[in-house]
């Protein structure tokens, strides 16, 4: 009672302005103490970032959709190690990749990944789970679906989707939004490989199950909440409070597919399925239930299937479109690739085996992936363990620090990729004239180790092999059939998933 009377007296004497001033002063003192107790005063960085994560949030929103990586700018100003938050550090030195992401480090994902967790209440997935040990067990349960020997079995499904894509292109006007069709192709490949059935994007020529709209909203949401994960916690609380459900068309479709496949497996009819001669990812998930019953429940299989479709679409689409844009802008590179395809006497569609003997194609794809969109906020944060962490250069990070290397920062390091790392140069991946075999192997090893396009270490993208296969096959087949020319229209879509060009059939060129 006395405390209440004292508070009432203080409120009356100070008024709202006075209480507001006290709150501001108290909060400022908290920020200062929070900053200095982090033990990162020896790390350079922007003044505001030393005291609040609002700095990262503001820049993430400011540069959203601009293909500008503000962390590159910070490293250019402050060096290899930059303090980007009260307890966050960004690193650009490629020698630190193994230190942070290697198996020996085994660092857990940071709180930043909370933004990718399901709103409200739902199971974690391979991307959002934070504990490295839990991730290891979860990954083992699905690993067979992504093994090298298994991925090759999915190729007929990619070929079917390529056939559907080229039928669409044959009926399109020469000047077309190839970026849109690439986007539809990638979605249908993902659906075909996951559920043994395309999602209908190429057939219906539209956002068949609403995934494009949903994914755009998801990317915008993650970019808004990842720099300040408390925003995701607030959103989750609201969703739980109003008991909102996020059962989209895609979720209902996935649930139906999984339940049908589980019923077939329980009835012993799985052997009669089309997956016998054209395996799909869902079949592998269902088969792993017996060995991993605790990790492959129906709900978890649904989650794995949905993530499998959504997670890789953006990377594959922007990578393919990047390659195609550079091919249009660099006619000599396009002609070099075409001649390489001609010498190899490739089929249509080009087979995965044929692509493995095409070094210039590899260089084109690696450059397209390396130089794709850099604006999203995803610093690949990891939590420093109780022993602390020593970065190359003897830079010590105390326990509790969030440390990471953003892929778009690692992708432009001169010490990894040589001179002019911002330039599109497929030849950098090929053996140079006069270069010895030993020198080439050493240079390629350094580039491969420093390329974080699919993340790195134990948390690297499990679907990398699938993404690479569908990218290689599409780029090679498209260039073998069409010459890509600049569009005549002047509008330039801001979306990374749209790109206009003229497709001139090769038979009319020759």
TrEMBL record:
It holds the Pfam family p450. The chain crosses the membrane at residues 14-33. Heme binds at residue 461. PANTHER family: CYTOCHROME P450 (PTHR24305), P450, PUTATIVE (EUROFUNG)-RELATED (PTHR24305:SF232). This is Cytochrome P450. GO terms for molecular function: heme binding; iron ion binding; monooxygenase activity; oxidoreductase activity, acting on paired donors, with incorporation or reduction of molecular oxygen. InterPro entries: Cyt_P450 (IPR001128), Cyt_P450_CS (IPR017972), Cyt_P450_E_grp-IV (IPR002403), Cyt_P450_sf (IPR036396), Cytochrome_P450_monoxygenase (IPR050121). It comes from Aspergillus avenaceus. It comes from the Eukaryota. Belongs to the cytochrome P450 family. The lineage of its organism: Eukaryota, Fungi, Dikarya, Ascomycota, Pezizomycotina. Its cofactor is heme. The keyword Membrane applies. Keywords: Heme, Iron, Membrane, Metal-binding, Monooxygenase, Oxidoreductase, Transmembrane, Transmembrane helix.
């Amino acid at each position: 009672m006395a405390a209440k009377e004292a508070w009432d007296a203080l409120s009356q004497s100070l008024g709202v302005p006075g209480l507001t001033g006290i709150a501001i002063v108290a909060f400022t003192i908290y920020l200062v103490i929070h900053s200095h107790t982090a033990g990162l005063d020896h790390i350079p960085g922007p003044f505001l970032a030393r005291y609040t994560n609002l700095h990262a949030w503001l820049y993430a929103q400011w540069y959203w959709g601009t293909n500008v990586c503000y962390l590159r700018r910070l490293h250019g100003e402050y060096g290899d190690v930059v303090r980007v938050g009260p307890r966050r550090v960004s690193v650009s030195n490629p020698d630190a990749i193994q230190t942070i992401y290697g198996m020996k480090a085994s660092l857990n994902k940071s709180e930043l990944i909370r933004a990718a967790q399901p709103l409200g209440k739902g199971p974690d997935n391979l991307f959002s789970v934070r504990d490295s040990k839990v991730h290891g067990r979860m990954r083992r349960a699905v690993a067979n679906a992504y093994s090298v020997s298994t991925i090759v079995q999915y190729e007929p499904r990619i070929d079917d989707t390529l056939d559907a894509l080229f039928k669409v292109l044959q009926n399109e006007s020469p000047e077309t939004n190839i970026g849109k069709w690439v986007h539809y192709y990638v979605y249908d490949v993902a659906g075909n490989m996951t559920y043994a059935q395309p999602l209908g994007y190429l057939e219906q020529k539209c956002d068949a199950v609403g995934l494009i709209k949903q994914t755009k909203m998801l990317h915008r949401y993650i970019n808004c909440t990842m720099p300040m994960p408390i925003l995701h916690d607030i959103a989750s609380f609201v969703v739980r409070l109003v008991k909102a459900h996020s059962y989209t068309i895609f979720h209902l479709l996935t649930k139906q597919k999984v339940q049908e496949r589980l019923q077939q497996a329980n009835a012993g009819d799985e052997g009669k399925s089309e997956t016998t001669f054209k395996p799909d990812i869902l079949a592998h998930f269902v088969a792993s239930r017996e060995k991993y019953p605790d990790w492959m429940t129906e709900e978890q299989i649904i989650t794995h299937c949905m993530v499998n479709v959504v997670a890789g679409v953006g990377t594959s689409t922007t990578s393919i479109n990047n390659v195609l844009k550079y091919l249009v802008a660099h006619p000599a590179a396009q002609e070099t690739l075409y001649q390489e395809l001609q010498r190899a006497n490739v089929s249509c569609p080009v087979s995965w085996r044929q692509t493995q003997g095409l070094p210039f194609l590899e260089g084109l794809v690696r450059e397209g992936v390396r130089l794709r969109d850099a604006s999203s906020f995803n610093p690949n944060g990891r939590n420093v363990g109780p022993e602390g962490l020593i970065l190359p250069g003897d830079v010590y990070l105390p326990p509790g620090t969030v440390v990471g290397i953003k892929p778009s920062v690692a992708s432009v390091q001169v010490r990894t990729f040589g001179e002019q790392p911002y330039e599109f140069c497929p030849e950098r991946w090929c053996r140079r004239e006069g270069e010895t075999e030993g020198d080439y192997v050493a240079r390629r090893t350094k580039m491969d180790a420093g390329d974080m396009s699919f993340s790195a270490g134990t948390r690297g993208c499990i679907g990398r092999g699938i993404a690479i296969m569908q990218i290689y096959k599409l780029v090679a087949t498209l260039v073998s059939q069409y010459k890509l020319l600049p569009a005549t229209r002047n509008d330039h879509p801001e979306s990374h998933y749209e790109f206009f060009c003229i497709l001139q059939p090769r038979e009319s060129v020759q």
